Amino acid sequence: MSTGDQNSRVPAYPGVERFVDAFDKLVVQPRRTRSRVPVVLLSEPDGGMAGRRIVAGLRTRLRGREGRLAPHACVPAAPVDPAERPLDLFEQITFQLDESMPRGTGRLRLPSYRLLRAVVGAPAAGGLMERRPKELRDHCYAEHREVSALARGLWWLGGRDQANGGTLLELLWNFIAGPLFQRLPRALYGRRAGRRMLGRGRSGGRRWYAEWVRQQQGTLPAEFFRSALDLVGGGPDGDPEQLDRILVHALLADLEAAGRKRLFDPWRRRRVSRFVLLMEEAGPAESRNQRFLRELRSAMEDLRCTSVVAVAAGVRSLASRIPDIEVAGLSAAGADLANIAQRGTPPGRPSGMVVPVAEGPEDDQAATYWLGRWPTLAPPTRRWGPGAEVAGVLGVGVLALAVTAGLLAGVPFSSTGPDPCLGSTFLGTDGQCVGVAEGAASFGTGDSERAVRDVLQRIEQQNEQVEAELAGRGADDPRPRARTVVYFGPLSGGKDAEDPVRGGTLAELRGLALAQAYVNGQALRSGERVPLRVLAANAGDRFKDAPAVARRIVDVADKDRSIVGVVGFGQSRRRTYEAMRIFDDAGLPMVGTSGTADELLRQGEHYYQTAPTDTRAGQVMASFAEHAPMVDGRTAVRVRLVSDPSDAYSASLATAFRDAYGNARTGMLLYTPTDAPEPSPLPGAPAGTSIPSVEDLAREVCRAVAEEPRTAVVWAGRGSHFQLFLNELARDARDCRKVSVLGGDDVTNALTEERRPWQVFGGLTLYYLSHGRAPALAGASREAAAFLAAYDGTYAKDHGTRTGEMRQDAHVALAWDAMRYLAEGIDQAWRGTGGHDERLDRGRLQAVLYQGLGLGFDGATGRMDTHGAAGGGRLTEQKLTAVEQGGPTGARTVLLCGTVARGDVRGTWGEGKHPCP
């Protein structure tokens, strides 16, 4: 049972258990995984005391029977007192934080705050300007002696500055003691204060205060106490907002430092919890507490403070000076905070989260049960006390000295193993190795990653075969030497990452490896084509590390002239765009695999797209939704369009569909998953109804279908979240036992799940866009037949639950086409050199691709004819696009539009011969 009376516990409001659970996880989160946490503002639009009761309950959770569980301060609700000093709030907070430090964690020292507290409280300086900084220093040292026993003792030993008679020994003592124990410590204090506030130099290692002064005055301060004269009395005009601003920055800087570990400070290492600031009543927009909260939020963002969690209740009115995150309620706030604890806060996200709360029933069953199981905070405990840890550190030091002595004496020590990130790889955002890899050594052993390793090992073997074949050729051999292509995609991920099967990476790698084997088989036999090596570049989960990896690839390409191009870019994301601009600046030709966003083509002149754009895909989907009998054998009369406004692909596809289908019949539902890598909405993203969670999304769709059974769902989101949506439909499908869904091309990734979508939700009728399913084209396209023969020759015995149907996935064939198209360009570039192999580089390849491949290329996913010369663009107009109907008996093509091969153009679809967009 927790301490305190019943009224001091967290009330069992609906969803409060998710909020409190996330709060607990943030408070005890390990240092190495922390990021900035937004200040939680509990707003009460209808009045009441719900927020104050939650804050009181949180404070109770932080108290233990025998000591405090986490350092915290709680500002109680109190009437405004005009006589209250501006600094009383800070003194109240710092006192409570110090008093609530858990046992064995030492005293909380706030040197920066205490120093600036003394500065702003100093009397107005007078006299000569040259003497004012010294007088301010002396005043601050006098204040320092009040809290430092050592400084106070040294001052007492120093006595008075002048002797007052006595023996010769007393005169000598008074002559020496004053300078030694008073003036010298005071001078050292002043120098240390300047070092603490300004850093070690003007050019490097600047501290927050130096940067703050530069922002206020335009130049960096040279001396601390001279620059601090402007703060005496709270600033030139006694501005309370400026006073709060500087003191909040100082307080947070000290708390951030107090939360860091130190090697020889076991008390610091035992500080395993964040500092918690609670406020029972924030008040109106211009109140004292609201002003403090505004400065707290700004300072947390400026300092990237990760050691503080703040919750304020009673937000009566919100100021519009700082942008906020607005959530629907306690449950949504808990989900958002849990996501922050797990994945961190993305840069640029607002520093405050507004959570509406209201007085309501306190008997929610889920909340009551959870609070009963977890009535209080449970911080991690250490087995040993500080004294034992000091002894342990000393033992480690002795051992280190012994090892060092052994090394100097030549004693061999065996290595603990190879660095997990070798060569041109490095640790990425999720703790996985990203960068350019020669093989599969850097990737994990999970089920999906094991399949990726198998393909990478196949590529590595094919690279070795090329090198072995070329090693026996003489220097005067006229046949071309190998060139290198880099595959750029997400090859692995950390905890909770989108695995490579669902993300489409495995499908692309299979197509790439098959195309490499096919190209090299022709090149090594004939000697008239260029053999290809393939390097794999891991861009991180959902391209989170794409820009950094792109820069590493450019560095490698500058040293290795055999690298002539990049294929991949299978996901249209903002980080993907940044990477493409880096490649474009370096002059590296790029061929896309399955990326579709129109924005991809705007990132530079070196990118060529194999898949149709989202504009064309949206038009095809709109035509299908307009004419196809997709809802119980009848056409739809209304559409619910699901889009993620933070995802470039989803926003682009949804906008294209709505523009083609019309606004009147299209209801836009905006849902951003909690694990989105870039959660902030894109500029120009489509407008619509925001949905906070996937459960609410399923309920909204069910409500729409219940109102109008001829409502179709168009899913423009990622396939990895489609399965979660279906799970929620299956849980509560009383009002919508049947749902017809038309999905974008990314939905094909959901077909690789162990349970197919129609097995998750039995009432599902599923249609999805496909960018060229090779089995449907085998009779009309020789390239599609060649691709299928290569696939069956390698993976015919693959009967895995997640990979057995990958033969049908257009991602595999698109990657084949991207590699084959790039290989054709390399061959033509080599022939253009007249057989002078040394002239074949990425610049010549770019010239060939920009002019176009002569008569084009009939690929496994339809005809490709991309070139930028004469305004032809870098994508294929009327690229083949299909709509498939999925089900237990297999896929069936119900729409086929575009160019299958040269002279074979599909201009209509369906029994009604509807014109293709």
From TrEMBL:
Which keywords does this chain's UniProt record carry? Coiled coil
Annotated coiled-coil segments of the chain = 449-476
Q: Which domain of life is it from?
A: Bacteria
The identity of this protein, by name, is ABC transporter substrate-binding protein
User: What organism is recorded for this protein?
Assistant: Streptomyces xantholiticus
